[in-house]
Amino acid sequence: MAMFDLSLDKLREYRPDVAAPADLVDFWRRSIEKARTDELAASFTEVDNKLAVIDTYDVTYAGFGGAPIKGWLHVPAGATGPLPTVVQYHGYSGGRGFPHATNLWAQAGYAHFVMDTRGQGYSAGGPSNTADDSAYAGLNHTPGFMTAGISDPETYYYRRVYIDAVRALEAVRTSPFVDPDKIVVTGGSQGGGISIAAAGLAGLAGINLLGCAPDVPFLCHFQRAVEITDKEPYAEITRYLKGFRDQVEPVYRTLGYFDGVNLGSLATAPALFSVALMDQTCPPSTVYAAYNSYGTSSGVEVGKDMKVYSHNNHEGGQTYQQDAQLDWFASVFGTTS
Amino acid sequence: MAMFDLSLDKLREYRPDVAAPADLVDFWRRSIEKARTDELAASFTEVDNKLAVIDTYDVTYAGFGGAPIKGWLHVPAGATGPLPTVVQYHGYSGGRGFPHATNLWAQAGYAHFVMDTRGQGYSAGGPSNTADDSAYAGLNHTPGFMTAGISDPETYYYRRVYIDAVRALEAVRTSPFVDPDKIVVTGGSQGGGISIAAAGLAGLAGINLLGCAPDVPFLCHFQRAVEITDKEPYAEITRYLKGFRDQVEPVYRTLGYFDGVNLGSLATAPALFSVALMDQTCPPSTVYAAYNSYGTSSGVEVGKDMKVYSHNNHEGGQTYQQDAQLDWFASVFGTTS
Amino acid sequence: MAMFDLSLDKLREYRPDVAAPADLVDFWRRSIEKARTDELAASFTEVDNKLAVIDTYDVTYAGFGGAPIKGWLHVPAGATGPLPTVVQYHGYSGGRGFPHATNLWAQAGYAHFVMDTRGQGYSAGGPSNTADDSAYAGLNHTPGFMTAGISDPETYYYRRVYIDAVRALEAVRTSPFVDPDKIVVTGGSQGGGISIAAAGLAGLAGINLLGCAPDVPFLCHFQRAVEITDKEPYAEITRYLKGFRDQVEPVYRTLGYFDGVNLGSLATAPALFSVALMDQTCPPSTVYAAYNSYGTSSGVEVGKDMKVYSHNNHEGGQTYQQDAQLDWFASVFGTTS
Amino acid sequence: MAMFDLSLDKLREYRPDVAAPADLVDFWRRSIEKARTDELAASFTEVDNKLAVIDTYDVTYAGFGGAPIKGWLHVPAGATGPLPTVVQYHGYSGGRGFPHATNLWAQAGYAHFVMDTRGQGYSAGGPSNTADDSAYAGLNHTPGFMTAGISDPETYYYRRVYIDAVRALEAVRTSPFVDPDKIVVTGGSQGGGISIAAAGLAGLAGINLLGCAPDVPFLCHFQRAVEITDKEPYAEITRYLKGFRDQVEPVYRTLGYFDGVNLGSLATAPALFSVALMDQTCPPSTVYAAYNSYGTSSGVEVGKDMKVYSHNNHEGGQTYQQDAQLDWFASVFGTTS
Amino acid sequence: MAMFDLSLDKLREYRPDVAAPADLVDFWRRSIEKARTDELAASFTEVDNKLAVIDTYDVTYAGFGGAPIKGWLHVPAGATGPLPTVVQYHGYSGGRGFPHATNLWAQAGYAHFVMDTRGQGYSAGGPSNTADDSAYAGLNHTPGFMTAGISDPETYYYRRVYIDAVRALEAVRTSPFVDPDKIVVTGGSQGGGISIAAAGLAGLAGINLLGCAPDVPFLCHFQRAVEITDKEPYAEITRYLKGFRDQVEPVYRTLGYFDGVNLGSLATAPALFSVALMDQTCPPSTVYAAYNSYGTSSGVEVGKDMKVYSHNNHEGGQTYQQDAQLDWFASVFGTTS
Amino acid sequence: MAMFDLSLDKLREYRPDVAAPADLVDFWRRSIEKARTDELAASFTEVDNKLAVIDTYDVTYAGFGGAPIKGWLHVPAGATGPLPTVVQYHGYSGGRGFPHATNLWAQAGYAHFVMDTRGQGYSAGGPSNTADDSAYAGLNHTPGFMTAGISDPETYYYRRVYIDAVRALEAVRTSPFVDPDKIVVTGGSQGGGISIAAAGLAGLAGINLLGCAPDVPFLCHFQRAVEITDKEPYAEITRYLKGFRDQVEPVYRTLGYFDGVNLGSLATAPALFSVALMDQTCPPSTVYAAYNSYGTSSGVEVGKDMKVYSHNNHEGGQTYQQDAQLDWFASVFGTTS
């Protein structure tokens, strides 16, 4: 479809009205509080990652509902900390995988935490073994995770994932390798959407982030996405409403609590987004909707920048964006040489 | 792909070796016993189906783990029973849907029960509202239901579904509309696979079935299916093993407990199968593997017949097969005019 | 393509100019008169439909040019009539099929007539055996029925089909089971387009209909359809004009006589339409063009309603729409309990 | 699918058993006789083809059932005749098109006749205007021409086409441009299948052909084709039997009268075939079945050769094959310089 | 996608701003001069084309950088000349192929020259053997020819091709068969784009053309094409910029020198364009951009006409357009009978 | 297509006859000698890779014909060497990309060299800037690199690439970071094919390799590949022979010099292969053909092992295979902790 969405000029001004529930902040405050009724219980155990220049720790902590969430903490070999820290969330289907993989930010000299997404992990395989330990996991849904528990914000799958992401921030801050005042969040696609949510919710959890770097983020402006693209995983929602034709209103009501357009508006951390203008999975208008909204309800001036990849589909910037992030994180952390 | 599997001559002789676990019968005996620790609690409440010639009852009973399973019981308007009864299971994604739909066997003068498949129902929508109420529903899996809990037979999704199916037989037998000695099971695709399982397990549950009529059944000879077709939903297994490359052995070990080739061999009820020779979803060799195995471990001579649709894909025989079943059920029930 | 047509707001106001031939009414009056030169010769013969609660009659009558048109008349078992009656036309490729299928409206207590579409029937198979008995059937055309005889309204395939549909109304009115003053027409896709045509032409034939219930109708706003979708069967027209590049004008001239936008405007019966906003086969703008035009040239105020399925492709509302129609027909027939 | 059929070694020995009806020759003798009850009435009218070096005549003659069949006769400008003559039949969907096109054999110095295929012509457009003027054209069929009237050899579409092809030979022999003893037939795909049929039937019509040059011929070994490929137009037959599931036997019985394997076996003219080993439309085994059978029932030794295009799909040899035919026709006609 | 571009009304007024480099004319003047440092060395050798009414000559001449460029010159058999002459360029992948093919304009009585496109020819095969003999051919590029050397106009592939095209005009003018004052250029797709370039550059080379007839031309309004279609070969550019994300500006800068919108504006020869409104390979807006710009910078009034094929994809008008060109060339050459 | 090739049992015994040219070794000896007429001129310049734990050097050396070939040499930060060294070749379309990427083996404590593939690099972008600097780059070919110069082994693209790969070994051995007696080669897909070639040619170049680790290698058993899959890039060969139908023999003759089945048979280094049984790009039979042949002509016993990924397509083992290679390289290098 080449470029199938709004022109870049219009994208830059695209500020759609995405209905934010009146109790958005309350809902999330309650969710964080509820999670905190379970002890965090973060543990860090070194593993043999078979690498010479990176050390890796197997991490477990209590996510939403007390479910054990797994991750890796990578640091430069022999580092003692505290280090500036990058917390990374995965794209849909991904997981922490093998301990020798996905450690770029440790190579750059930082602590690098990667969090499993509960129930997923099947594309990474290996030790991606974090279940969605919840009574709501088996509610009627279409194949995939997008519609699990979607009839109510209380039961929706991403409530658990977003809280896991906030708890990940709490967990890493208990590690001596991590400088608790120097944390950024990042991730691509679903990981980008979770990053935005984490940035929006960090304040409610009393955590100050130094930056948020979502790439071609998913989980933003759901309704627009469903209307403009038929690509997975947004299409899971379409498939659900194709069958449950009478559930359109409650489904979009639920999604209002999880939309990056709404959650990102609460963020205060500076941001570096990326967008791909031929992205059929996360259409550029949904990304710009989140970008243009980002930080606007936070009450403070929030610095933000967008890297535009004009001829890319959902792969986005890849190593180009990593290159930009290497610079930006160094700047944010004050480690620019 | 036109015809892509074995020739009809070879299909008729196709008796592959599908490893049956040594404790197959024990496993299922234990599963039935475990289910029976929850009270069946079958309830029947008449609903307005908006039809003049059929009456419909909303049914709930306790499936595996006590989960409330929903279904409809349709009977000819004004019927009193006991009636010969057809129990129908749904194809993958299906659900009981609206009470005015899927009632052919009541039109034919029988009691007709349709069972929700837990967690599914999204293609039927409407009142298809039976959750997979289980602690295992959120274990790591690929989108869909085929790999949920697949690492162990105890946690596998279809353990719960197959037991729900057996419990459905127990449930309908408590209705005054149902002649408990005149029950047949049927269904297409997944519903066919469940029918075979129900026929195989009925004996373990002390239930005598008069017939089993699986159409283009799914859930048979999993490994062959995965190797010969890339169509959903068998491809969910492929996708799982594509990521979890080291889980091939345990996955196929689990599936051995659920394979229609193994379970059907235990059956004693006469059977009317159907197969489509261009079926890319449930390849004909997987259907014939189940057919040729059907009843062979039961210790009795079991009558069986196969309707072959030579130029059909997974739609199979549709109304042609219904026509054949109308005759066959009448014969089985002794209601042939 | 997700939603690829106009927004719902714009659809509701979409009233395109579809050129109606000056002699539209004359053409159809002449066509009806011509058909009446052949005796209707409607016959009704009971068949064994293998069902207990429905009786079925094999119907034959003389369609356009005297061609024998087949259908089934289903009634509640033992009914005597006269009954409110639903006349149903098939979707493209469909046919009356087996006598045990497609009898929902008889289940609801009405007489239910299903008409074969001449030449088609191949997707239903079985006893779908009504030929397009016409000297024009072999005129140059692309595969399918959409362009057969399209160079002239006199020879176009749908002239014969639309008149068959009107003659079906005449035929059922000769049955003692049918209350001639209580007839509605319905059908999905092509059946919806034929319903609209039948509703528009009924007045010219002196027949009063109580209702018209077209679902995701085909055969409306042809030129828009050809320009906005490449899906079959509208694409048959594209394929014809792709080869016969100099026939654009005469082809659209012919289609003007058959366009649901033009024919529906003549209707006086109340209507219940349905539309699917992701329908790539019958794009929503073509459906709304017909809906917004419906009844507007009839000289009377015509009640009409539209059921919108926002996340559906051409499957439309299915059982949801049946549910709505069960209510609406009961209301139209005055049989609401 | 790259190469998906038998290996070349096996193809060369592939002689499947294609059931030939006992009355095959009688059926065709009767068909030819029936056609001859209509006067041939071949007319030749010069048209302006806008070319300097070729003259073109508009030809009409009575085909099967007396239907007027159109064609062009191209000759070198100013030629007087009698000339060696090439009669060409079209691929499926083709037609004679514009008079300035498809005249290669006239460029080579021969008379070149191209015959319209009744009812088709939509891909060529222009003056491709020969209807399938027959009472059987409207019998139930799937979109396309492959199943029109297929329930009986008497009513099957290709009965009319094959007889048209024989009549074309009779027609051109009445032209002073044509040397009636120096005629070859040729064509690609459907045109190749018709060429084989014409070569097989020519003897029954008392016509002696000098050669038959079918390229990647269609209409050979139907059942194998349907089983091994899902590409159009063979798939029309699959689609028909997918719906009319009970018509498998009569359909293949009818096709036995029209199969190039059976008809070609009657031929006595030397042949130059071509085959493409990656041809998914006309799979190589179906072509070799016809080739290996060609002439084998004729009672004489028939020279034949096969050009093999190893890496081609249905486009076959194109200009390479024309180059080979230029040589072969020159040799057959004795015009080699 | 049916019609996916602007409406015909908007196309007719579509005059986008395609940045023309300031030194466009200089660049091409220099390129022509550079080419002329190699001797033209045009040779004409008769070959046996196996045809009776056409004579064919094997042509070689020095293209850009002195590379030997091959072509055929076809003339009516026995013609002596000078004749009006049609120079034809090929579509992407094409080549001169066999000498018996692609000679329509010689059939019409003209001299007809077909030029090989360097490096291509693989779809025609046979004697399509002209290499892209250049030190720049191996510069980093995506599969295909669209991005070879694209980082600089000096090294871009089409610089060599366009100059080859101008040199072809110079070469044919040295043949006694050719009337040097009666030459038109034509071609479809890439051949259309080259025709426009040749018409634009002819004046710089001191050659007066009588006409330019590009069909569904490629190589026009590159940026729009890349943005609106994902079809090959424009997609080669997309693929290049997908990887080399930082090269967007220099790539479009280079393309500015080669865009038919810019080059065609310099043309003075009358033109007959064609466009297909469903053309996904060369979208109609890119064709109209070139058409509306054609001749507008030439300082003279340039006659031009557009044939619109409303229901065609990239096949465009085919024989219909040939028919129109037969008339138009006759008119341009003054040979209308 | 799921599993579409031979069964694993048959793959293990698959030893096809791939014609090796009589002068295979001579050809390559001459090619190496020819390359050595250009000075190697390897240069190493440190660059800022923005990483803390890895140092990276920009490498240039003279490949075949003296063309400047680029690469990166990564080493653990502060390492002095000599280190065991991994030389990696890229998959088709790949390139060295950014200096912060593709450095796993340096993370593991080794020197890690990545070589640009001349002319390619477009999927990696960034500093992937090595041209195919050769007079043969512009010979007629289909889009891509597979057929460039394929008519003769002297001019074939992969002659240059394979020699570049051997020269890379020579180049890294001049670096003080590299232990010249501890080098392994590796790569996936095309990189696997080049690895096999490098292992086969290393001996001719007087270089002793410690190991060869090709993953899902490409460039093996070309003819089988072309016949069994239609996926790119093998399909480039099909496309070439589809047009140049008369070049089958010379093309496969050329490929005989480059086939991994032939070149790998010369290798003496132990090998760790991987294969994916659902690999449609590099079908398993082509991989096993190379594996089973590997080292068999070398005159010595060569240790080799195969990792089988049963449910994977061309992605193969990915991090699982990296994990296996981390162990295997440590064992080969004697660095196992």
Automatic annotation (TrEMBL), chains A, B, C, D, E, F:
Task: Give GO BP annotations, semicolon-separated.
Answer: polysaccharide metabolic process
Q: Which residues bind substrate?
A: Y92
Family annotation (SUPFAM superfamilies): alpha/beta-Hydrolases
Q: Which GO terms describe its molecular function?
A: carboxylic ester hydrolase activity
Q: Which residues form a coiled coil?
A: none
| InterPro entries from the UniProt entry | AB_hydrolase_fold, AXE1_dom, CE7
Show the active-site residues. S189, D279, H314
Domain Acetyl xylan esterase, which positions? 1-329
Q: Name one Pfam family in it.
A: AXE1
User: What PANTHER family does the record tag this protein with?
Assistant: CEPHALOSPORIN-C DEACETYLASE
This one is known as Cephalosporin-C deacetylase
* Species the sequence originates in: Kribbella caucasensis
